[in-house]
């Protein structure tokens, strides 16, 4: 009994300490993403607090941290610039509702169809994006308003303190895991900088973030068709971006912790959190892979860590906003650099000579698109590229085996799937002018998958008819027989042997 108690106490301690570590990292990012979206910093901080709290309570993926994110902020900026914050809050409510519907319909399982190369590209792309975002902290704004790289002693101090942060986070876990390395590094660097009397640009200068508890309000948006036309497109995009990033982050946590999250529950949790944001003045968000990795590697693998992070963030906003300004930028940069190292799939380099070139291309494509455009676009393009690559490979597998019967009939046994990508090759396999008068095409070892395949069979029937040859088709499903127009009377029906499967065709819808 005592061993069980101490085990639970140790886990709770890990969750609390890792939650505090995450809270420190959440503040500057939430403020930064609020600026990206064009809203007040408090809107970003409230968004991070409510996303973290609600998703940790009902989100279904222990250890995963949600908050205000850059991927959603870049979508919000156009909406806020054109229509203002109130439209943003209304849009976040609708986006949350769409996410909850997605989860209620149990569509979260479809994240499992995302191919591994797309996952690798997503993770590596996000790691690079996080790295590039930290480089801005090594710049200072000049008198002309442009950013310039630090130089001389400020650059040396920034690099040195960043390296010291990373060294603490690397060495401390080898000595003890009783205290999160990230939190230890933040405390040590803060004490060192202020005891040594070091000043800007080494110390953060976050905007005024003092505020109270977020209050309930209904967005001041007219309930009209015109308003819906503005809100709905942005809501669909935000819901999609948020779900893709959240569900892929869940998959990454699944691999790191060797556990399995519940995609549908995650979707519902994200949607509920975004709806709460819309009614309480937050900018909404989704899962954050950087903070999630900080949390998981610091020992926070339960929901308590996310709750502590959210409540700590609220405490910073309400009571301790001044303490945040004491944290050196170098400590936060070093913390994020370690996240980059832990997030990037370094093992993907070892796969370069071991996996098909098509998979390498897809992974690199997703990485590049993630860096230069948007996560949702990158994942969708990656899935499409993987599907087309698979279709191209499968198209090469179709072939026929011919044999002649004693009565002179030639039988072609089709092997391999017949679908849109293999129809061209299917047509090349037959030469009506070289065949005898009676020909049978047997589909017992094939699968007619879509309308393109049906058209290919109809076209084949027309070719044999034009050549004055007799063509019969065997072992086609009932659906195929219904859809075949030109070759319908050439199909031999054999109830006991004909296959049963569904053909993807709008005519049957």
TrEMBL record:
Which PROSITE patterns does the UniProt entry name for this protein?
STAS
Q: Where found? A: Membrane
- Keyword field: Membrane, Transmembrane, Transmembrane helix
Q: What's the source species for this entry?
A: Acidihalobacter prosperus
Question: What is the protein's name according to its record?
Answer: Sodium-independent anion transporter
Recorded hits in InterPro entries, A to Z, give: Membrane-Transporter-like, SLC26A/SulP_dom, STAS_dom, STAS_dom_sf
* One of the record's GO cellular component terms: membrane
Per the record, membrane topology reads: Multi-pass membrane protein
List the Gene3D superfamilies hit by this protein, alphabetically. STAS domain (3.30.750.24)
Its primary localisation, in coarse terms, equals membrane
Q: Does the keyword Transport apply?
A: no
Answer whether the UniProt record assigns the keyword Nucleus to this protein: no
Which residues does the UniProt record annotate as the domain STAS?
399-509
Question: Where are the membrane-spanning stretches?
Answer: 87-107, 114-133, 153-172, 179-198, 231-253, 274-294, 306-339, 360-392
């Amino acid at each position: 009994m005592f061993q069980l108690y101490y085990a639970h106490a140790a886990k709770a301690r890990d969750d609390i300490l890792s939650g505090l570590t995450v809270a420190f990292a959440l503040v500057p990012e939430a403020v930064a993403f609020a600026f990206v979206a064009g809203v007040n910093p408090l809107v970003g901080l409230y968004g991070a607090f409510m996303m973290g709290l609600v998703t940790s309570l009902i989100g279904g993926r222990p250890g995963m941290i949600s908050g205000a994110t850059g991927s959603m902020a870049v979508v919000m900026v156009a909406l806020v610039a054109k229509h203002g914050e109130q439209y943003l809050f209304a849009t976040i409510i609708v986006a949350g509702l769409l996410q909850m519907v997605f989860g209620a319909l149990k569509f979260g399982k479809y994240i499992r169809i995302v191919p591994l190369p797309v996952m690798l590209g997503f993770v590596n792309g996000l790691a690079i994006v996080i790295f590039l975002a930290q480089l801005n902290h090594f710049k200072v704004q000049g008198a002309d308003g442009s950013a310039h790289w630090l130089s001389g002693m400020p650059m040396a101090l920034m690099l040195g303190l960043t390296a010291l942060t990373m060294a603490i986070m690397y060495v401390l876990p080898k000595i003890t895991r009783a205290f999160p390395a990230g939190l230890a590094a933040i405390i040590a660097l803060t004490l060192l900088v202020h005891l040594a009397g070091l000043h800007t640009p080494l110390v953060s200068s976050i905007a005024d973030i003092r505020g109270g508890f977020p209050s309930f309000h209904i967005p001041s948006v007219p309930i009209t068709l015109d308003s819906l036309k503005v809100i709905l497109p942005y809501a669909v995009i935000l819901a999609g971006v948020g779900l893709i990033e959240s569900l892929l982050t869940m998959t990454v946590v699944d691999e790191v912790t060797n556990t399995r999250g519940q995609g549908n529950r995650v979707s519902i949790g994200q949607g509920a959190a975004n709806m709460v944001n819309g009614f309480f003045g937050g900018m909404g968000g989704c899962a954050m892979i950087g903070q999630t990795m900080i949390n998981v590697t610091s020992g926070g693998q339960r929901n308590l860590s996310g709750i502590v992070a959210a409540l700590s963030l609220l405490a910073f906003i309400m009571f301790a906003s001044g303490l945040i300004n004491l944290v050196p930028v170098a400590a936060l940069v070093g913390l994020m650099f370690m996240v980059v190292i832990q997030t990037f799939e370094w093992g993907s380099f070892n796969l370069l000579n071991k996996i098909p070139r098509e998979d390498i291309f897809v992974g690199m494509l997703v990485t590049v698109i993630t860096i230069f455009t948007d996560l949702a676009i990158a994942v969708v393009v990656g899935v499409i590229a993987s599907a087309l690559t698979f279709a191209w490979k499968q198209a090469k597998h179709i072939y026929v085996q011919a044999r002649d019967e004693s009565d002179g009939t030639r039988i072609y046994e089709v092997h391999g799937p017949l679908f849109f990508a293999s129809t061209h090759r299917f047509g090349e396999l037959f030469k009506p002018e070289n065949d005898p008068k009676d020909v049978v095409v047997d589909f017992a070892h094939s699968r007619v998958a879509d309308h393109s395949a049906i058209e290919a069979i109809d076209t084949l029937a027309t070719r044999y008819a034009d050549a004055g040859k007799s063509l019969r088709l065997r072992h086609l499903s009932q659906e195929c027989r219904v859809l075949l127009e030109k070759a319908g009377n050439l199909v031999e029906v054999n109830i006991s042997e004909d296959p049963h499967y569904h053909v993807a065709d709008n005519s049957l819808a």
